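Lab meeting notes turned into a lecture example. A postdoc, R.K., suggested we walk through two folding results consecutively so the class can see how the record format repeats. The first protein's sequence and structure tokens come next.
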Amino acid sequence: MFRPLIIAVLLVTTAPTIARPTSATSSPEVIFTLTSRSGTYDLRVANEDGTGAASLFKGNSQLNGKFGPRADRTIAFWNGGNLTLLTYDATSTGVRTTGTRVLLNSGRNFASPFDFSGRDIAWWHPETGDLHNYNLASGTDSILFNVPQSSSVSFNPDGTAIFYSEAIGSTDYVMRRIPITGGSPTDVGITGHIMLFDTGHQSDKFVVSYQVTGVGPHLDYIPAGATSGTTFGNGYGGAFRCDDRVIIFRHPTGNNSSNTLKYDVQTNTTSTFSSDNNVVFASYMPTCN
């Protein structure tokens, strides 16, 4: 169905907890969200080791931002029910926001599963169950397929297809793929209690966060072409670095606390991006150049 619409347990090395430095990054690699006791959300960017953090946007609702390609200097995020595009400048003096504009309003205040390819934004509406693709150039928001229950969406490496999860039972999900032009979805072969997942930038590999009854969330690295992989730690929200070698994720530490860690796929080691429990989301720059 295609309806075009126009809508206005591992080796861990430690690193310093993120703090607002006097010199902000001039080449951001990680985007993350920091919460405060007052209930505000702070969208920030930083170097890969957590230094050079700079604030680009603040709001009163969950802000999970996704970088566009490095050269575009764009970020997409939900601000309440508004799908928003932010532009920024990065120079030797640091990073600063140059503008924001609302692309569309979903009709309700929610942070929907979404992904940003630079050209398009894939997103799922929890009330209608419709999987959408918003094209930046035309401003067209197209409904691709109805997915009654989903937990995550992600573009394939070249941005021509969208992977999404669909519930097939009370706790089980199946991962499927659909072209951005619409058509019939196809099964990928990955199943389970999928919470979140991310697709590789170089090939169709995946990092999948599963919910395990009585254990909690754990993360699997699934190589391209496989339907199962290797569990590398407890956590959720994994996202690939531009070269697919490193995965950044949230790792629970007990008492409702968590750290933000980086897992190296090749060396099977983990290091710390931030030990600040107020970091609630993190993702990498998708392109290396």
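The second example is placed directly after the first for contrast:
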Amino acid sequence: MESASAKLSRHLGLIKWIYIFVGLLCLAAFLIAPNSWNVNVKALYAYLPFVGFIYLMEIGVRRGVTAALYATYIFSVLLLFVFPVGTVIGIFLLISCVSVSKETKKKGADPA
């Protein structure tokens, strides 16, 4: 049976790929019709570190780093304010984080 931290890591990986896909889709749409978009291109550059942060959280959770679990908690709470899709993803991540915390408590390690 898969551990809760492995599931959370897998969920973060899925979210990472969703963000990469959406970012590439926006970039492609901007490159195809740049005049029809009223978008600042610098906002697309700010998107890349965000995806990198999700990747680092995924690796940290997979390795069992407590700080990565805390970062995932913060990230999922912030996603709750991005209605409607972010709210669903945030609730999904919070449930996964709580299951990791419960599993960690059962093992007797430092709970996150």
